[in-house]
Specification:
- Helices cover about 30% and strands about 20% of the residues.
- It has two domains: about 35-90 and about 255-345 and about 565-625, FAD/NAD(P)-binding domain; about 95-130 and about 215-240 and about 350-370 and about 405-560, Glucose Oxidase, domain 3.
- It starts with a helix and ends with a helix.
- About 50% of the residues are buried.
- It is of the alpha/beta class.
- The protein has 19 helices and 25 strands.
- The strands form seven sheets. Strands 1, 2, 10, 11, 12, 13 and 25 form a seven-stranded mixed beta sheet that branches. Strands 7-18-19-20-17-23 form a six-stranded antiparallel beta sheet. A four-stranded mixed beta sheet has the order 5-6-8-9.
- Helix 2 (about 20-30) packs parallel to helix 13 (about 385-395), helix 4 (about 65-75) runs parallel beside helix 19 and helix 16 crosses helix 18.
- The longest helix has 18 residues, at about 605-625.
- It is globular.
- It binds flavin-adenine dinucleotide and 2-acetamido-2-deoxy-beta-D-glucopyranose (5 copies).
- GO terms for molecular function: flavin adenine dinucleotide binding; oxidoreductase activity, acting on CH-OH group of donors.
- Its cofactor is FAD.
- It comes from Camponotus floridanus (Florida carpenter ant).
- Belongs to the GMC oxidoreductase family.
- Keywords: FAD, Flavoprotein.
Length: about 625
Amino acid sequence: MMLGLTATIHMVAKSLSTEIFLVILGLLIIINRPDIVDEKNRVQSIPTQQLLAEYDYVIIGGGSAGAVLANRLSEDKDRTVLLLEAGDNEEILSDVPNNMGILYHSSSDWDFKTEPSSNYCLSMNNHQCYWPRGKILGGSSVINGMLYIRGNKRDYDSWAALGNVGWDYKSVLPYFKKSEDARAEELAESPYHQKGGYLTIERFRYKSPIDDYIIHSGEELGYKVHDVNGENQTGFTYAYGTLRDGLRCSTAKAFLRPASKRKNLHVSLQSFVENILVKKDGTSKIVYGVQFLKGRRRVIKAKREVILSAGAIQSPKLLMLSGIGPKDHLEEMNIPVVHHAPGVGQNLQDHVGMAGITYIVDPPRKMTRSEWNRFTRNLSRIGNLESIQELIQNSSGPLYSHVLSAGMAFIKTKYADKMIDYPDVQLHFSGASDYGPLVANMNMVNSKTVTTLYKNITQNVQAFGIFPCILRPRSRGFIKLKSSDPKEAPIIVPNYFKDSHDLQVLVESMRFLQKMVRTDLMRKLNARLNSNTIPECSHFDISSDEYWACYARHFTSTIFHPVSTCKMGPINDSHAVVDDRLRVHGVANLRVIDASIMPHIISGNTNAPTIMIAEKGADMIKEDWL
Ligand SMILES: Cc1cc2nc3c(=O)[nH]c(=O)nc-3n(C[C@H](O)[C@H](O)[C@H](O)COP(=O)(O)OP(=O)(O)OC[C@H]3O[C@@H](n4cnc5c(N)ncnc54)[C@H](O)[C@@H]3O)c2cc1C
Ligand SMILES: *[C@@H]1O[C@H](CO)[C@@H](O)[C@H](O)[C@H]1NC(C)=O
Ligand SMILES: *[C@@H]1O[C@H](CO)[C@@H](O)[C@H](O)[C@H]1NC(C)=O
Ligand SMILES: *[C@@H]1O[C@H](CO)[C@@H](O)[C@H](O)[C@H]1NC(C)=O
Ligand SMILES: *[C@@H]1O[C@H](CO)[C@@H](O)[C@H](O)[C@H]1NC(C)=O
Ligand SMILES: *[C@@H]1O[C@H](CO)[C@@H](O)[C@H](O)[C@H]1NC(C)=O
């Protein structure tokens, strides 16, 4: 059946457009890969007529954090749990790692944009950066890069030093491990990892020869290739992902599918929360339910607590819509002030970097056409029937690769402390020849820049890309409401590079890249920087700091790690929104549990830390109601 079908399609479509490719891939998965379709285990949304009037716990947002909470809180059969998610169920195509990005701008994406800036994202239309966020069960874990990184031990010790008891590294490590099902052999003996949890961690299944050259070039510079989630962070590594059998393992797959048959857990999809309901009792403010839209406006009560897990953009937004936030701003929006909380929406931090940096290489020896084709990856080359066939028949092939990050490194610029393991820059390595145009497209860079910058990257060129980003930015941005209408997207101002130190660190990372391409391993490939320049920066010498500062301000890219907009901290910190048990200061029966509570950003990708926060938060809720 399968072969007959592909043969026929082959006749019709020798070179596939992305749309046709995805249709064929989807069709063949439905027919041939019941493991991906996973019909039996997919979460069913509760029909509205079966919704209860009241639940013990109401969770807002079924993303990275919310999915974990729904599972853990419903472990207790005597407690009822309602999970409200604005989006719909997961789709089959997002399971394929190489398809990262296909849900951008779709109905499963909140599709945010930052306010126009004169300091960053200058190559984007209207100087606005694009910020995708998952609007789907599993939230941003369904659209993210799947990279499994925990951050640096010192990040958590510093959270604890700010007065957050129980958040030091030693205390959070058990919660990272609790979720984890580490399947990579080399992690089996490590005291930092564990098998048997819900969240499967694997290495990406497919590797190109170029990846080995990139990762091992670090060794010549004195860096180890090792587990960057282990003893020491500084070093190089192949990418590990939230992957199961090579395919995306979102938190919906990991935590919700196994829990969804529990009678005491109701998951309601396409349920858009507008408001958290608070009553005043004397001077106390007490949360008693939520108001949401599904077909019509509905109110559901929470006997114990409402848990807000709408993410770093929408959790502060929902607090403000409910009258919890900076007094002046709420008044300006005509929202009755329930509780003055000046830190709501403030303290926004993100990992900003410069994208699209491309090195051209010559494969080290004569190769057959097919070997040559696979020395690096190229999305257009991968988007063919051979790749689909490998995925369908053999569960392998380039569709199992990560387009943007085959591996990464945590390195120190001259600004970092040489004596300690606290790198200040992360590099993501892409073994894709068309990484540049691809990432430009993902970031919505204007076409003039793309055609100028990548005019050399043609069919017969092999290349790879490096994306440096800063790990501990000093700049702080904010989220505010545009109006009191819940449907309206918020104002997002990340303030990248507002503190010039951030730009200096990023520019300094180019010095490292220059050293890296001069290693013997890279010389074997004759690796050389793409010599084309961003039009607006071309008056600077390409090897100067000025050029790279200009580049960073134009081809600005985040890896989408906004955090800290409802930060955790003690009551005497006026900008702390939640305490160290994640309860909102000054409002009873309400917690925030998601990426927004980080006191400050951690030194690495933020998904695993968010899952850890939810694991720990779930335990705290259970303890507090004992
Ligand atoms: C494109 C992209 C790539 C990334 N790559 C990586 C990576 O490779 N590795 C990594 O570690 N991290 C990565 N991240 C970051 C990581 O995915 C996030 O930090 C993490 O998912 C945040 O989890 P969260 O629970 O705070 O929010 P989310 O996962 O975004 O969940 C919030 C949920 O709340 C729902 N919601 C919001 N408002 C409402 C409402 N009013 N009513 C009902 N529901 C609502 C949303 O639909 C969503 O499901 C990436 C993020 C993006 C966007
Ligand atoms: C971690 O780094 C320290 C200091 O450089 C070193 O002594 C130690 O051996 C490293 N541990 C591992 C597991 O690499
Ligand atoms: C099938 O997968 C195995 C590894 O999983 C690989 O060694 C083999 O080359 C693949 N075969 C084909 C035809 O792709
Ligand atoms: C990628 O492959 C396609 C199809 O073979 C080709 O047209 C394109 O030029 C290639 N791009 C790169 C950067 O190799
Ligand atoms: C890019 O192409 C130009 C000519 O268009 C050439 O001068 C330059 O050397 C090329 N750069 C690289 C890195 O191949
Ligand atoms: C806040 O209180 C803690 C003790 O709970 C104390 O250690 C800290 O110094 C105080 N911070 C400020 C800014 O007052």
